[in-house]
Amino acid sequence: MARKLDDSTNALPAQAIAGPANPGLAGRRVLLVGGRLAETAAGPLKGAATESAGLDRMGQARADRYDLVLVDADAWDAPGLGAALQDLAAAGAAPPVLLTGERLPTSIVRNLMRLERSDVLEAPFGPDQLAAAALALLALRPAPAAPAESAPAAAPAAARCWSITGAVGGAGATMLAVEIASALAAREGEDRRVCLIDLNFADGAAAAYLGLTPTMRLADFNGQAERIDADVLQAFAAQASKTLDLFAAPRDPAAFEHVSRETVLRVLEVACERYAYVVLDLPRHRRPWTLEALAGSDEVLVVSELTVPALIAARCLAEEMEAAVEARPRIILNRLATRMFGPSPSMSEAERALERKADAGISSDWEAAATAANLGGSIAHHRPKSKIVRDVAQLVERLAEGAAPAPTVGRGLVKRAA
After folding, report:
1. Four-way CATH pick for 160-417: 3.40.50.300, 3.40.50.720, 2.40.480.10, 1.10.645.10
2. How large is the angle between the packed helices 308-325 and 347-354, nearest 10 degrees?
3. This prediction's pTM
4. Span 246-288, pLDDT tens digits
5. 15-138 has which CATH code?
């Protein structure tokens, strides 16, 4: 008999959690096993029909009745919870199970692995992480028919994709990606939203720059990339402002090995269908999906600092892109400063090293950049009068007005890949 640590796990009638519904959870049936989960899940699982119960009910849960079982491992002793998981696995036709808690004994995790679909979310975790983990499991099975009034909004008429990468590490590519995305979001307004996607899965810093929690869990969709739709993508979004969403993954040194090319391209395809502008923070080193991302981009920006090694690297990287995908990358010189004395090259000297014209320069403003990074948020938010903000705004205006939108949304990244 399991020892009940919570006195509120008696079965309750199914109920829809009040408040605005998450479209990906509309009509989903979730069994909450552990009394504290009703409060914990009230926000992340808005829109789902929930029912609270004890371990005896969990062992009898079936996929034809519940779409997800959410378990608070800390509410039960290990032998009781392990037995319930064994019963669930032995009966077959089990719904997906998401196990949460601070104390997760090896025996419990081993029993969980017997289930066809399961995941573990270690505490402490935030509402966004819980919603993302739940939607990742729910995406592995078909969603119920949505009512007509909840049909997704029409896609933007002409989505555009801009890719940004650094010629060398530390050139400021992520900082500029954040500022460019923020400038586009301010320019477009609420009717045409913008997203920033950090594709540096191993050590991305966009979330840290914006003071947000990364929640994109793409490894869960390997082999099931087609399950990623607008609702699943929205569950991964961290809102930087009313008009700017960030998609970023938790830092993981082995992330590039765990996330498939098809999954990345599917995310880009769906993002280009849902946003007016998609800004990509690309890793410097080529990945299996890099050429498709570049080929599907309307603008490719290579960011370089003003050192000879960085300028040579920028020239070589631009030439590689031109040869591989017939792109016309633009080279952006970062941290320009008025030179009185010292070895820093001038713009004309930099262009001689590049053997081509630079497309834009971004002024150096260390104090503004450091302030924004430390406080979390864009420089435009914390230091709107910074020279960096001025230069980025001019660059964005020139690129946005200087070329017509792409003829097809996102240029069909997945189709091109195929």
Report:
1. 3.40.50.300
2. 50
3. 0.70
4. 999 999 999 999 999 999 999 999 999 999 999 999 999 999 9
5. 3.40.50.2300
